[in-house]
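In the laboratory, one determines a bound structure by crystallizing the protein with its ligand and collecting diffraction data. In a computational setting the workflow is compressed into a single prediction: the sequence and the ligand go in, and a structural description comes out. We illustrate the idea with flavin-adenine dinucleotide.
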Amino acid sequence: MKYDYLIVGAGLFGATFAHLARKQGKRCLVIDKRPHAGGNIYCEDIEGINVHKYGAHIFHTSDREVWDFVNSIVPFNRYTNCPVAQAPDGKLYNLPFNMNTFYRMWGVKTPAEAQAKLDEQRHEAVERMKADGIAEPRNLEEQALTLIGKDIYEQLIKGYTEKQWGRKCTELPAFIIRRLPVRMIFDNNYFNDAYQGIPIGGYNRLIDGLLDGIEVKLDADFFADRCHWESVADKIVFTGKIDEYYGYRFGRLEYRTVRFETEILDNPNYQGNAVVNHTSADVPYTRVIEHKHFESFGNAVYDNPKTVISREYSTEWTDGMEPFYPVNDARNQAVYEQYQALAEQETSVIFGGRLAEYKYYDMAPIVAQVLNLFK
Ligand code: FAD
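The predicted complex, in structure-token form:
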């Protein structure tokens, strides 16, 4: 055996694992079937702009250890995610729902005025349901109306949610929206975490830093030569799809995915913000990302006369597409649990990351999980 660990997948899980194992003097080989390392956080340089090829990624955490660790690999900038929504009424609203949103929608200027308006709208929704003989919200639409009222639901939730799920809100279960947090302050910061940002110079710096000094083989699919790869190391760290690892013997796990339409524009500043949500059902895409705003601030935006935007289309997943979001419904969960039972019996394979655990993870919990493994 030439290596202590064969790490399948050069994404954030695999790269962090390799980095920490190397620090302990372990010999690691990382393989990835893609032509680049980084997994879904990989960025492509287009016109000097780091384009988030697999969807916009914003690192955020309240875990000081995770923040210090990633910053020890590459310092992070001060990017703060403040998305804006283009609504069916033609207006732009700040997200998440906060005093700026309420001021734009109703002209209310104080938290008390906003609260009164929200209470009035919620009350109207509940009374309407009562009049129709409905005791409990039967679907997502009724749930949202009782939680936040008609105006915000119709302008900022309905169209977006229907595009995201590919189904009418009246056909979606109520439990998808358990609560709709509102902020009674003028604060457009999307995250509540203590720390957030983007690696200075882009995510590839983070991945390159983690993989520094480690042997990496790209365009190398574990399943294309499984016997060979299994013979090169004492242990395997597997971050690919768990159903594929077990030959789909209990069936395929399902995902939802996103299709990106990326365009270079001769315009230094197309939408003035990194993230603009389109909440109208008449616009086919859910969001437009303008990538330069993740890393250039103030007038530095104009240093590059061009910009790159990506329109995002929420799409049903079929085999061969990028598996992005696990569909954690009863059927998929039951299938996953069968694979998980097999995985728990393995003595020389560690399963980790979003595909092997069939779970949506943000980046910070992935790093935290690997740090904990090494503790
Ligand atoms: P991955 O990045 O998917 O890495 C797995 C790697 O394994 C891939 O490179 C793949 O090619 C490789 N692989 C798979 N099978 C094989 C095989 N058979 N042989 C060889 N290699 C193989 N998190 C945040 O914190 N903030 C965000 O804003 C954010 N935005 C997101 C937006 C989208 C659209 C998505 C999908 C995710 C987002 N995330 C975000 C989550 C983030 O992408 C994940 O936390 C992170 O990528 C997980 O890393 P991973 O190593 O588990 O998986």
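The pocket of flavin-adenine dinucleotide is lined by residues 8-14, 31-34, 39-41, 55-59, 221-223, 239-240, 258, 324, 353-355, 361-364, 366 (CB under 6 Å). Keep in mind that any predicted model is a hypothesis to be tested, not a measurement.
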